[in-house]
Amino acid sequence: MTWLEALAVLLAGVVAGTINAVVGSGSLVTFPTLLWLGYHPVVANVTNTVGLVTGSASGAIGYRRELAGQLSRLLRLGVASVAGGLTGAVLLLNLDDEVFEAVVPVLIAVGCVLVVLQPRISTWMRHRREDQPRQAHGSWLVVGGIYLASVYGGYFGAAQGIIYMAVLGLGLDEALQRLNATKNVLAALVNGAAAVFFAFAADVEWWAAAVLAVGSTIGGFLGASVGRRLPDWLLRGSVVVVGVAAIVSFLI
User: Fold this and answer.
1) What is the pTM of this model?
2) Predicted pLDDT at 155
3) What pLDDT, in 10s, does the model give residues 127-164?
4) 99: Cβ–Cβ under 8 A, 6 or more apart, which residues?
5) What residues have CB less than 8 Å from 21, skipping those under 6 apart?
6) CB-based contacts of 59: which residues, under 8 Å, 6+ apart?
7) How far apart are CA 203 and CA 212, in angstroms?
8) Could you tell me which residues come within 8 angstroms of residue 65 by beta carbon, excluding any fewer than 6 positions away?
């Protein structure tokens, strides 16, 4: 890895960490960056997951005030997240590479669509929250939804935070900022579980992962502190532009 490549990965990590703390689609920036540097898609995905663990953790720490009183909820949903993340990681390494390469453009496209629709999803969530009572710690349907979202996260992960927010918002009686804090913890657990598995069972580009970890850690703290003040259109637009460019590049 050259210094210019390292700088590109570092900056992508900062952006991804910021976006993950606020919205949850940072992999749509870092994964294409690793692809453009020439890494095999599966290796890029594995390295991306390992490198974003610390960013997810720093984002969760930055939201620690909103996590007060959520321990029992986090334990309940955290088990589902870890189980789902490991399931997705196992699927990634056991399915043929051709399968992953075939579905990557679709997964990126789904992530971009979710980013674009995120304001509508949030509005829909607010209406549902007003109309229907929900359990404080989530029904088994919520646990199942978190598990399935975590399977997706362990397998690829782009925009998994948006999926988490939709599941949590529909099933929990809680303020959105506190749900976002919960989302950050769950993302850290999924990435952490998958990263441990990948460290022993997959080819990880450790230098790239280390640089990405530094950048995403910085971004996670930025996202938790100042990222919430950035214009939504700027974050959302940059993610979509990078995602579309990645799809085009991947298909070509």
Assistant:
1) 0.81
2) 93
3) 765 655 555 555 778 899 999 999 999 998 777 887 88
4) none
5) 55, 58, 59, 62, 63, 184, 219, 220, 222, 223, 224, 227
6) 17, 20, 21, 184, 187, 188, 220, 221, 223, 224
7) 16
8) none
